[in-house]
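Appendix B, Record 12. Input sequence as logged:
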Amino acid sequence: MEQNLSNLNSVPEHQYEDDDSTQSAFASRPHRPPAQISSQKYAPLDWSGYFDQEDDVHIPGSDDVFHIYKAGTDGPVVFCLHGGGYSGLSFALSASKIKEKARIVALDFRGHGKSTTEKDLDLSIETLCNDVVAVIKAMYGDSPPAIVIIGHSMGGSVAVHIAAKKLLPSLAGLVVVDVVEGTAMASLIHMQKILSNRMQHFSTVEKAIEWSVRGGSLRNIESARVSIPSTLIYDDSRKCYTHRARLEETEQYWRGWYEGLSENFLSSPVPKLLLLAGTDRLDRTLTIGQMQGKFQMVVVRHTGHAIQEDAPDEFADLILNFISRNRIGPHGIEIPVGIRRPPTSTEA
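Logged structural output:
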């Protein structure tokens, strides 16, 4: 039912405290009322300005439906996995540039964005990996194109596990964005406090966008205007917006995301790129691996944790350069014309 937001300006976001009566963010989502335009500076931007289309991928044999955003028509598939609490639209600004030379797909994980599953709170590493494999299988069948998988934060751990376990036969490259085992494991003891201290309720979508930028979680206003709305859900009982992903209820899975991440990353049998916001994030295992030349590493300065949002043009350039450097084509490794074996008379 269409809701009236005319009285929301009088509702301060901070007056609410979490209690048992709070509606789960994973419950069936009510119709969102139109947002008030409190500031054009923080007005939401539509995904269609960056991706070519959105789609729902139904997983056979289940009621799970995963939402994806797609762009581009040629080249390998750049398959993007967002971090916890984000959505596929975290890659929107970089998608508009990557699609010029490659196909790009950005997935909403279960419990995030517009994806709906039977167990939205099951964010175990095994479930998340199986979800990605199932989506790719549903999209491409038994003949998938060459795939470069990109994972940010939690999505980075999923990407690494998929690569290390060789779950995708057509995997041609792995890109991990600002997640390192040592740093991640050390931060887990603070995660609940961080989640509980963040703003929980917003009278308008614009207020949430403004909070994300002013609070420093995102440094690019344009990206925040695209991605933040997809991370929210409207709470009918409180007449306000709140976070779609209830990460505080998934603590049992956090350690599984990051344990053994460095060794799994180094053992992944594909070209690897690690993008970091600072060298202080590198742990001992990766430092040794980097010195041995086992992967390419780039530190992207002047960004926060969400490199792909804060510096989308530089991020896109790094991804395209990675694809070019490793000669990854639509169906795998491309052999330069100059070193191809001349065809025999029977092949000509």
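Confidence is low (pLDDT under 50) at residues 1-38, 337-348.
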